[in-house]
Structure formats: C-alpha cells, structure tokens
Give the backbone structure.
Amino acid sequence: MKKQSEQSLQNMMAEYQAVTGSNVMQQLEQLAAPLKGARVLHINSTKEGGGVAEILHKLIPLKQALGIEADWDVISGNQEFYQCTKGFHNALQGMRQSISEKLLQNYEKINRENEEKLRSKLKEADFVFIHDPQPAPLLKLIPERRGKWIWRCHIDASKPYREVWKYLREWITPYDASIFSLPEFAQPLPHTIYNSFQH
C-alpha cells in the first residue's frame, strides 16, 4: 500500500480526533511512541470487500500517521485456493467440511508462490500480521524471519469443525501470538492470545 502524503495523514488525524476526542488520540500517540519507525506488515487475501479490507484501509494510514512504517500486501490465489479457504472459514464457524487432499496441496502451493514474491518484506518486517487462514502457512515458509508474527483471526472459532482445525492449528501454532475479536471466539494455542477489546 502506498504511503499517503504528510498532509493527507494530518487531515486524517484531525478527522479521527473530531470523532474520538483529543484524549483518545493522545492515548494512541502514547501507545505508538515506542513503535515509531517499526516496520509493520499486514497480509490478507483481498484488497476490496469484506471486513478485513475495510479495517486495513483505515488502520494502515492511522499507523503511518502515528509514525509506524506500516504496509499492507495481498496474496493472490486461484479458484481452488479460494474454494479451500471458504471451506476453512465455514469449518472455523462449526460447519462440517470435507476438504480434499488436492485442495490442501493447492492451498500450500499457492502460499509458497506468494512467499517467493513477498519474501524480502516478510523477512525484514519487525511485526507481521497475518489475517485469517488464507496466508497462515507463510510463517513456516520464512524460517530466517527477524520479527514477531501475529495471527489475526476475524472469525468466531469457538466451536470449529475439529478435523479442519487440527490441520490449520499446525500452521498457526508457531506464531508468536494470536488475536481473536472476542475472548469467547478463541481457541487454546501454545502462545499468547489477545482479543481486540482488551484494555
């Protein structure tokens, strides 16, 4: 994502402050101060449409305005890739899903192809946020990474279809942390788990 001009970032901060008030903006500035200059990379699977893209369209410029070197890349895939990840989405929400070995192999292949394109950025980032299951395998494909990697789950995964969760868990377990939207949406994992509404 292209960094916005200094003027547009200042305008955006003024718009945020008009809605949130100066106290909230001061708190954000205090929280961001230790991260000034940090390279933060977000990865998801779509630039438009869906809640994740909507969040990132606002979040990335806000982070940039706060002095964080935030960036956003989108992985690409074929029809079978999105068929597979739609099955993951449904399975995380508890629906019984039968995902073939062929689809799983294609899912892994597509992630390898995206890793090749994004390798240098993924290796050098101080923090990498991987959104939902689509790009989850990227972490294991970058063994020489330098930064912290966080898996951000935007789905209610409280009662997943176990067979699919067992597969996905293998990709997610090595992350440094996970973020779920609410505590009750989370699954137990052997790393630190946060939720979006923690204070």
